[in-house]
Design brief:
single chain, 35% helix, four-stranded parallel beta sheet, alpha/beta, 10 helices, binds phosphoric acid mono(formamide)ester
């Protein structure tokens, strides 16, 4: 084990506050490398990383792949469509088969909560959770915290509203406890039908109106309405949802001048954010995507035994 006291990143709670800051500081070192013309280091040469994405993804899968390549690891993308999972092979059998080829790390995205933890019982490789069902998405939380810290210079004391489909959100499941651990004040905002019973268990207070305290927030973090995960009809229509919980020009005008808007992507344009607010607002959506590469480089490097002194120039 390296400077992080964990072999895997399954949940954000696997990291202490100090360890989160080690990841963020290491990511900043890699960020500098990402601005160079030649964006490649020999750091993970000879290490093998499999991206096992069994649910769709653009940002997470591609940024993990770029991160591994920039560190010179041998990275392999596992495609469910072209694999024996199409013939009915189970996840456990798939992982034991891959493990027999000699792996150092598996990044997994899967629709079942807990699947990354289950993999740890079937391989010696380090596991990173790239999003498991409605449970957690810890690398998204880390890149979001990195983005906030780079923008404001600090996280402790920030007033962060996380808005929308709280109960189905693995982004909320990791970001709220992560921010809370670092001393931010987190408010979960959404309709009662999309609010878990005890959001305070994840470090957030609950509010049901975006308008009540809009002037107070430093960060307004919009969650995607996950139409693929909604059971029954938690709100009358997307139009009604957007009128109550979307960011439009009127709400934008009420926010602090220095407040920022964030969103994990992909955005439902016209629902969480309308096109005018995406294009003109102080939004950091692409900064988040940009941060994803450096943060994932940092995690791969640290989980595979690196320390901050070992980043080759
Ligand atoms: N934010 C996020 O997880 O996006 P993808 O589904 O595109 O990976």
């Amino acid at each position: 084990m390296g400077v992080l006291g964990t072999k895997h990143l399954l949940n954000i709670e696997d990291l202490s506050a100090d360890e989160i800051y080690i990841v963020l500081d290491t990511a900043r070192s890699f960020e500098e490398i990402n601005t160079r013309t030649i964006k490649k280091l020999p750091t993970l040469r000879g290490r093998t990383i499999i991206n096992l994405f069994l649910e769709s993804s653009t940002r997470t899968r591609i940024s993990f792949e770029i991160a591994a390549k920039r560190l010179s690891a041998d990275s392999i993308n596992f495609s469910a469509d072209a694999s024996a999972t199409q013939k009915g092979e189970s996840l456990v059998d798939t992982v034991e088969t891959l493990d027999a080829m000699g792996l150092d790390m598996i990044v997994i995205r899967h629709s079942y909560a807990g699947s990354p933890h289950m993999l740890t019982q079937h391989t010696d490789a380090a596991i990173i959770n790239g999003g498991d069902g409605k449970h957690q998405h810890p690398t998204q939380a880390l890149l979001d915290m990195y983005t906030m810290r780079e923008h404001f210079g600090y996280i402790k004391g920030l007033n962060v509203a996380i808005v929308g489909d709280i109960s189905h959100s693995r982004v909320f499941g990791s970001l709220a406890p992560g921010l809370s651990l670092l001393g931010a004040n987190v408010t979960a905002i959404g309709p009662k039908t999309l609010m878990p019973a005890y959001p305070e268990a994840l470090g957030a207070k609950a509010l049901y109106s975006l308008d009540d305290e809009l002037e107070n927030y430093d960060v307004v973090y919009m969650l995607r309405i996950q139409q693929e995960r909604l059971e029954r009809s938690p709100f009358p229509s997307l139009r009604e949802y957007s009128s109550q919980y979307g960011i439009n020009l009127e709400r934008l005008a009420r926010m602090k001048d220095e407040a920022i808007i964030m969103h994990p992507g992909p955005v439902n344009r016209g629902v969480e954010l309308n096109s005018e607010t995406i294009d003109i607002a102080n939004n950091l959506l692409l900064d988040q995507v940009h941060a994803g590469v450096a943060v994932r480089m940092a995690l791969m490097y640290l989980l595979l035994g690196g320390d901050q002194d070992g980043i080759a120039a």
